[in-house]
Amino acid sequence: MNNSRESSIRVNMVGYMQRMPKRVAVLSDEPLSVLDDKGREVKTIKDIELRADESSGDRVALLDLEDLTKGEYTLKNGNDERKIKVDDSPYTEVTKALIKGLYYQRCGCALDEKHAGIYTHGACHTAPATEWENHSVQKTIIGGWHDAGDYGKYVGPGAVTVAHLLYAYCLFPSGCSFDLNIPETGNGTPDILNEARWELEWILKMQKEDGSFYHKLTKARFAPFIMPEDDKEPEYIMPVSHCATAAAVAVLALASRVYKEFDGEFSSRTLAAAIKGFEWIEKNPEFKPYIQPEGVNTGMYGDFSDRDERFWASCELYASTGEEKYKKTAEKMYSDAKDPELRKREMESNPFFQRMKKFHVFDEIKLGLDVTQYGWMDVSGLGALCCLVVIKEKGGEMLYDEVKADFLERSGSILENVKESGYGTTLKPKGYVWGSILSVMGNAMSMIINWLLTGNDDMRDGALNQLDYALGLNALDISFITGFGEKRVMNPHHRPSGADGIDEPVPGLISGGPNGGFTYPSTKERLGDTPPAKYFLDETPSADTNEIAIYWNSPAVFVAACFSTL
Ligand SMILES: [Zn+2]
Asked: How far apart are CA 381 and CA 360, in angstroms?
C-alpha cells in the first residue's frame, strides 16, 4: 500500500456507513477500481473528471462509492492502493474517544491507570489560587478541564464545550450515551453528562458572591512542556467579564434542564447560579471587554461584544423558567444586533475592537447575530439552537419564525460551499484560520440542525462530508483525531502528549488543523505560499496549526454522535 503523503486516493480512514454516501477523493483521472476482501473487482469508476480545488490547489474528483455493502475493500487508482471499511456503525469508537478526550483534560485530580491506561499522571493544580486584582484574596478552585494544549482554565470556552456535549446528548442520546470507563461510570447517569459535570462544577466555583463569573484561572505565563503535576507556578484568578458571566449563565440554565432527571439538587443549584449571574448582568448592563492585565500572557479569549452571549443566556433562561423577561431580553439582543448605528457605536467605542483592527481581524462590522456560530467568541448559534429545538413555537414571531428563517438561509449557504469544494469541505480559502476545525465542525452542526428542521438529506450528507474531512478525506491525507486513522496527527501541541514520554499522543483529541491566516512567522518560513488547506505542521511547537482544544473536541462529539445514531 502506498502510504506516502502523495497518495492519489483520500478516504475517511475510520470507515463508512453502509446506509450513507461513501465519499473518496482521487487526484488522478485513471479509473478507480474497488476490490472486495477476496480481490474481486466489485466496482469501477472510469469517467473521472478532476476539478480545481481552490483551497488546496489540488485537482481532485470527489466520488461516491454508493452501494457498497458491509465489508473491507481495497481501492486502486493507478499505482496507488487504499483500504476502506464499510460498517453499520463505524463511528461509535471515535465518538467515545472524543468524549473521553475531555476526561484526559481533567484538572485537579490524578488520572489513574484504571481509567487512563498508560496516560496516567498525578494530581495537578490543587493549590489555592490568588485573585489577580487583589493578592490578599486566595480561593481554592479545583477542577475543570485544561483548556487546550496549555493548563489554563477559561469560563467562556468551558461553557461552550459543555453546551455542545449537552445538546449532543439532548438530540442524539443513543449516539453518545456510552460507558467511557471514567471514575463515575455506572452511577446511573450517562458518562457524557458525568464528564460535562466535571466542568460544570468548576464553572460554579468560578462565580463570585455578586453573581458575576471570573474570566479565567491561569498562571501569568504558559507553562513549559512539562506534565501537569509538575507545573507548580502560582495560579491566578483573573478579573470577571461580561462574556464569561453570560456564557456561564447560559450553560448553567441549560444544565438545569438536562440534569433534572438525574440529580434534582444539582439541577436546582445550576439554575439558581444562572439566575444570579443574569441579575449581575442586569445590574451591570454596560459591556466591558476583558482586557488582559499587564504581565499576563495566557489565552485572552477577548471579545468585542457580549450581545451573542446575552442572547444565548436569555434564551436558555427562558427555556428553563418560562419567564417573559428573559424572552424580552433575547428578542432585544437579537433585534438590536441588526441596528447598524448601534453596532457601529458599540464597536468604535470598544477597546478590544480597536486593538484587533490593527490585525485586520474585524475589518467590517457584521450586522445581525450569525446564528450558525457555536464557538467561544460567537455563541449566537447556541442561542438559536435553544430557540429552534427547545423553545420552538413558544418563541413566537421573532425567536422562532425569524430565527428559523435566518438559520435556514445561513445554513443553506454552507451547503453551497460543500458543492464548490473539491473535497466537499465547507471552508473557502479564507476560512482556514487558527482552529479551522471549529468552523468545519460548526458548519457540520449547522447542516445537521438544518436537516433536523427540514428533512433535507443533502444537509445530513454534507455534514457527514465534514466528519470525513476530520478523519482523512482532505488535502493533507491526515486524520486530525489522535489515535484514529492509518495516517494521523502524532505531534499535537498538547503538553501532556509532549511530556509523557509515550510515542502515541493522548487519544481522542482533535487538532485545530490548517491555518493559512494567522500563522507564526516560524510556520510561514517553513510553508511559504503553500495553499491554505495545506498550511499545517504535525509538529509539537506549531500551536498555530496543531494545538488541540476542548471546544474543538466538543462540536466533533456533536457531529459524531449524530452519525452514531443513524
Ligand atoms: Zn491541572
From this structure: 24
